[in-house]
Amino acid sequence: MIKKFEIKSHDGPGRIGKIDGELTPKIFFRNELKIAPSEGSAHNIDREIAEFNVKETLRLAGENVDNCDIAVIQGSKYTDLRIECLKKLEEIGYNGFIIANGDALLTNSRDLVELVISLKKAAKKSSYLIFPFAELSFMPILTYMGVDGFLTDSANYYSHLNVLQTPTKSYDLNSYPIYENISQKDLEKKNLENMEFVIKEIHAHMKNRSLRNLVEERSATTPQNISTLKILDKNHMDYLLEHTQLF
To answer: Which of 83, 109, 122, 183 is least surrounded by CB atoms within 10 angstroms?
Structure first.
């Protein structure tokens, strides 16, 4: 059930590749994926609970490996548990992974950076990472760090909250009535259209080796975004330079 992932080029750690002939980074629709069941939990929980959830996730992934092509990396806030989960899932036979607790990670820049970089360093080159519930302004920097795809769940998630997602900002329509009396279905459609635009924007910048420029431009959109970039530059410059083309 493994989907073949081919790496075509890099822009920094960000990768342009192909999965089943489709260009990455890409948007993944949940109903098109065969995701192994997992034992989920909150991001900030006791280690004992996180350890149990990783154990159960590995058991369920092993039982369903013949019918599924995507597994979920559990482990809550414990990076070592996340890496253990990833490596054992790879041993079971998976190469596509969803990073659990994406919404919580976006509010904790340090955890976000340390987890994504640690997973990228530990993962096989043929493995690809999918981030759920990404705000659109975060998609460029997540790609820059090495994330290969994004679940469309975020379009539905934010529409439930009555939030309009744009490439640079999230608008609570209760406070900023940009669209008055818009249905949840129409709001989800707009969020998905904007998500598709950001992916095309990322592809264009990666083709022109200017993804870093887009990342810096978006870093000014939220305090969390600029904090993420600062932590990334301060703690992981060697990682960023490893695949950066020299001119």
So the answer is: 183
Contact in structure between 99 and 73 (CB atoms under 8 Å) = yes
With respect to residue 246, please indicate whether it lies within any of the assigned structural domains: no
- Residue 216 is encoded by which pair of tokens? 């810096």
Residue 111 falls inside a structural domain: yes
How crowded is residue 4: how many other Cβ atoms within 10 Å of its Cβ? 11
The whole-angstrom separation of Cα 90 and Cα 246 is: 33
Q: Hey, how many other C-beta atoms are within 10 angstroms of the C-beta on 177?
A: 11
Q: Compute the distance between CA of residue 42 and CA of residue 140 in angstroms, rounded to an integer.
A: 25
Q: Could you tell me the CATH number of the domain that includes residue 198?
A: 3.20.20.105
- Binned at pLDDT 50, 70 and 90, residue 20 comes out as confident
